[in-house]
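ingest -> validate -> predict -> emit
validate: passed (alphabet ok, no gaps, 652 aa)
predict: started
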Amino acid sequence: MRIGVFICHCGSNIAGTVDCAAVAAKAATYPDVAYATDIMYACAEPGQDAIIAAIKEHQLSGVVVASCTPRMHEPTFRKTVERAGLNRYMFEMANIREHVSWIGKDIEANTNKAAELVRMAAAKLRLNKELKPKSFPVTKRLLVVGGGVAGIQAALDAADAGLEVILVEKQPTIGGKMAKLDKTFPTVDCSSCILGPRMVDVAQHPNITLYAYSEVESVSGYVGNFDVKIRKKASYVDWVKCTGCGLCTEKCPARKSYDRFNEGVGPTTAIIIPFPQAIPKKASIEREHCRLLTGGKCGVCAKVCPTGAINYAMEDEIIEARVGGIVAATGYDLIDWKIYEEYGGGRYPDVVTSLQYERMLSASGPTGGHIKRPSDGVEPKDVVFIQCVGSRDPSIGRPYCSGFCCMYTAKQAILTKDHIPDSQSYVFYMDIRSPGKGYDEFTRRVQEEYKARYIRGRVSLVYPKGNKLIVRGADTLMGVQVEVEADLVVLAVGAEAASESAKLAEKLRISYDSYGFFMEGHPKLKPVETNTAGVFLAGACQGLKDIPSSVAQGSAAAAKAIGLLSRDMLDSDPQIAFVSANRCVGCGKCIEVCPFKAIQEIDLRGQPKAEVIETVCQGCGLCNATCPQGAIQLSHFTDNQILAEVEALCRF
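emit:
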């Protein structure tokens, strides 16, 4: 075998603490190394051309590049050796930037370590085999999970490109959190006015099938051919017959149900249509609040329904579908604000969340757009907004900034002044974070034009005094303690990952971080892709963001899905597990640990054996590490290849 070794300077990133020329000189002495050199920027076009020229000139049959992380540049160099006529898997990469130059300043020690990593890579390369991918057909259908603004955008973009789209939303209507907003920042335009037409487009698009009040039950298969089961929950109303007339909601006697859409600002009935612009505009019954379903007595809605749409015997339905790709756009939840007992949330009725206040401001809300104190219905004059309630707080495990709270508080202060001209708004804040287009101007406008008083400091206590609430805090700019008498206190509640995001991540076989947000393939280069091929991310499920960013990411996820599903055939990654039937004893341990369900038991001449489903395997190696007999190996990372690296390190 003739191996070529290329040591990258990466400017001063590597060369600053590693003697690259010395590493190349040492590499030239390793077994089967026919050519070794150092190069300034291996990943740049001149560097790649130099590698190609060396392969042809020295008739190299394998290449080692020592540079930075394979996660970023391994695909680049594999394409390079392919252009030179080699199989892409006759290439190895040694990470001498993150693993060497960035973790120490001792040039001699770093040079020795870099040389050892190169020796290990060359030892493994000698045992590499040419691997070839297999092709398989693609199902040109996309599943979008989540009907918020990001999911809507992704679904519409994909459908407009000609793909069939299945949109699954767990609530009875699409729209997500944006549908609950009155206005949006920094333009202060009507939320439903800009979202409503997009929701209607979803309902009327010939390429989109909408399953509202539904959840993804299970996902199996692989990129291009995912088999999905969708649980369509029983609404106890036949949506084919229902016309959305609302007569049932008017006559229902159970009027103390919790109104999820309006964040509990006011009670609602057991049978509901979430809001006037809901898509689909169909009624659904909350089972736990329905008198007939819980106590066997009532049935008023069935009596008044003009189309006979009420069906108390309805059960959940499982719908099966095959899709080529999946976009997760499951949004976010607000944190449990009641854990801040010092703010009186849940104890004092006139302490509300930002989203509850939004429903008060909305004309479609329970108060008809009139701001009223929950305790007595009186219009408040002094409104205090408390920022960072559940954001930037390590004590509750939420050290991150939610990103949009500063802006929506500024918007609500403006709307308060518009609704109540003689009102005064106070904003207690830690720092104002307004990095978006027109955002900083917006926060200045609320202070200068609308005269909102911004007080830099944390609130320590909110307590009642007569019919007022006393907000005690600090003004760190003035260096004094302050107390403000408030008629209404609005908590700018931070956000967290959706409550069932971890369960969905396990179904989709994707990673999620310690806070529950889905992990992207690369934080900079693959912001909408995941570690599972064919699964993409959009919106706040990947990390908290505002509406424009969510829409942009929805379009980006759709673009990635369109690019994937535009092809008739896909190539599988050949770096997958394979079973040696002679050594396999059929213990099934590999089947138990496989996170992708890529291993099945077969009967081979009367004996149980493991078999890898090649198109499903993602090459994670768990089965390889678990097998007590060593019967299951991972192509390109076999036990012999790993041992060769260890021996190369220990022998010298």
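The chain has five domains: 3-125, 141-233+318-331+498-565, 247-304, 335-496, 577-635.
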